Amino acid sequence: MTFPVTMIDRLAADSVLADSVQLALQNNLFDHLQNPLSARQLAEKLQWHADPTAHLLELLWSFQLLDRQQQQGEALLYRTASAVIPYLCQQGERYMGDAWRYRLQALRGFGQQLTEMLKQPLPEYSEQLPHDAAWAAAAGGQIAQEQRALTADTACAIAATVTRFNHPARMLDMGGGPGLVSAALAQRYPQLTGVVQDLPLTARVAQGNLVAAGVSDRFSAVSELADGDRFDIIWCSSFLHFVADPAQTLADLYRRLNPGGVLISAHARLGDDPQQVSRVLPFFLPLLMRGKHVFHHQQLTQMLTEAGFRVEDRGEQPFPMAPLYIHCAWRGERS
Q1: Which residue numbers delimit the O-methyltransferase dimerisation domain (predicted)?
Q2: What is the distance in angstroms between the CA of the first residue and the CA of the last residue of the chain?
Q3: What is the pTM of this model?
Q4: Per-domain residue ranges for the chain?
Q5: Angular region, 205: left φ>0, alpha ψ -120 to 50, beta rest
Q6: Domain 135-330 belongs to what architecture?
Q7: 57: how many CB neighbours lie within 10 A of its CB?
Q8: pLDDT tens digit string along 170-206?
Q9: Fold classification of 5-95 (topology level)
Q10: What is the per-residue pLDDT across 167-178, written as a single tens digit (0 to 9) for each?
Q11: What secondary structure does DSSP assign to 295-313, as a single string?
């Protein structure tokens, strides 16, 4: 095998692109370029110099974040690519610029700690919950942006393949954060009712989003579930990474399902294909290094089966940061 010099070089170059996108977001560059501007015109708006600005714009254009055009005898004009506007312009309906910047800083912070982490044993699992106020702030910020940008659409696409959504059903959104997945599913399926469960202040954020979505007559957000609460559908995305005992949690979720109900699990999975692992592990290595759970191979399938579920592997689906592996796990006969 030839040593992958190109790949190694690319890793170094990607840091330049990441810094350039971060700089663009910090200065609302994509917003300014919703109308075509030359490098000189943009530089005047941002109080930059025209020549280095032109080089930055060429880099962003080369990664298809910008379009460019030139009329004969005139300067190149740059414009934010139409596919980019919803995601990186602040008024875009799927804006996720703040979430992307947060993830970039978090991953860089982790990288700076990696040397010290390698000198210590992995920490034992901590049952301490995230600080409610910090988690609520994330739910109102970067997690909401990510759910709005991609997660809700992916959830609706998965739901379209699960027949249980075509009948009246009660759904639990376990650890649902800002509740935008539930809001999107409730808007898509008017016969669907349910609850979003999360920490108290986070549940308050979710309740506000359910009200704003016009579905609070059918969905509510809670911090605790009653012992007798039962559901026809449970949506469980990235929740098992953080619990003390995933097998016990799955057993508890099985008991909360009505016969014929389905648990939809969306979690990171590390397989045998290096390309697949490379898409997932850089984002989930921080969890592993902090003693959290990331599932290997058929590990989660086995846990689901041992909990009593009949499991359907649905493969990977797109989610923020990295693709997640989907299991549809049924209790009893499918309805």
Answers
A1: 20-80
A2: 51
A3: 0.92
A4: 5-95, 135-330
A5: alpha
A6: 3-Layer(aba) Sandwich (3.40)
A7: 25
A8: 999 999 999 999 999 999 999 999 999 999 999 999 9
A9: Arc Repressor Mutant, subunit A (1.10.10)
A10: 999 999 999 999
A11: EETTHHHHHHHHTT-EEEE
